[in-house]
Amino acid sequence: MRVLVAGGGIGGLTTALSLHEAGIEALVLDSAARLWPLGVGINLLPHAVRELTELGLGGALAELGVPTGEMVHFDRYGGRIWGEPRGRALGYDWPQYSIHRGELQMALLEAVLARLGKRSVRTGTALDGFEQDGARVRARLLDRASGTAETVTADVLVGADGLYSAVRRGLYPHEPAPLWNGIRMWRGLTEGEPFLTGRTLAVAGSNTAAKIVVYPISMRAERRGRALLNWVAEVKVAGDGAAGAADWNRTGRLGDVLPHFADWRFGWLDVPAMLAGAAEILEYPMVDRDPLDRWTFGRVTLVGDAAHPMYPIGSNGGSQAVLDARVLAHELARSDDPADGLLAYEKERRETANAIVLACRDMPADRILHTVSERAPLGFEQIEDVLSPAELSAITGAYRQTSFSDVAALNARPSYSPAG
């Protein structure tokens, strides 16, 4: 069996590694002329860390990423509202990692090239359409440098090509643009002093107005006694103007984001100084797409953001792509018919991923945080004076809904690896 994987991001590279582990040939295509360690930080849930560890990348994750110790919510004055441990401290057999997206991608790329060979990844190559006849998929490829076109055949085509997936567009040519919820995000990296435990994922404010999310992502920096802080500033934009393109590499301006956080100075973090200390700021709207009722058409299917783009709530974007990749390879390896294997993959993953998309839209934790800002607009002494025990526990329930409902199940589940 030969699988063509469109997209050399986290989902596509993990798909290639998983297929190779299962004895299936894979070729990865990416339209970028070269894959670089771009982007900022992400969180990998224990679900994804388990899968990458079983692919032999546990050492790389421990070398690069910070094992997240806790997640804590604060009001816009830095008053503590709620907190909960993460990773192993929550009972999982694997940690949660906060890591630079680009460094993770490069670790995956290095593993793909080492295991599958130097020709297993073709950059500068765009997917320009595809067709299938029930037995094979014929993909039309375009060399972006020369303009040369060619047709490549494969047994399966996997769309791992992100929010603007060419594969998804081929399956759903009339789908509208991504849906914007009115929140604009700015992201950056700033080196500074460690805050709180040094391994805290902190959330302050509410995205009904303004919210800041910040966490350390570099074990190298931690070993130097410093912290490379990944921050996300979310602001609800007035009016109903157009979102603009969701370009993950679009440059943002400090002058656009700083006024929303100009006086956000906490005892444990100076937010304006952190924003100003970033060498580069990225800006894009918070968007997703409506869940699909079908990912698989014959020998073509979708994974990751191509299948289920979601709001960045609960650390699910990259983690769900890793899970897709592992289940896809697992089902293809144990099926006599590739089309049946793809349907089995979709049956296991689609409803789960779609439910997370909808849960992220619901944002129940942010509703509670907004309640705090309404009841205590100038801050509070004790959160118990502001929220009832039931309201506080609702925050825990919100994260159980999107990310942490299955500690025992994950720890006990058999491996997706062929020898597991």
Automatic annotation (TrEMBL):
The keyword Transferase does not apply. The keyword DNA-binding does not apply. InterPro entries: FAD-bd, FAD-dep_Monooxygenase_BioMet, FAD/NAD-bd_sf. Keywords: Monooxygenase, Oxidoreductase. SUPFAM superfamilies: FAD-linked reductases, C-terminal domain, FAD/NAD(P)-binding domain. It comes from the Bacteria. Gene3D superfamilies: 3.30.9.30, FAD/NAD(P)-binding domain (3.50.50.60). Residues 2-170, 292-357 form the FAD-binding domain. This is Flavin-dependent oxidoreductase. The lineage of its organism: Bacteria, Bacillati, Actinomycetota, Actinomycetes, Streptosporangiales.
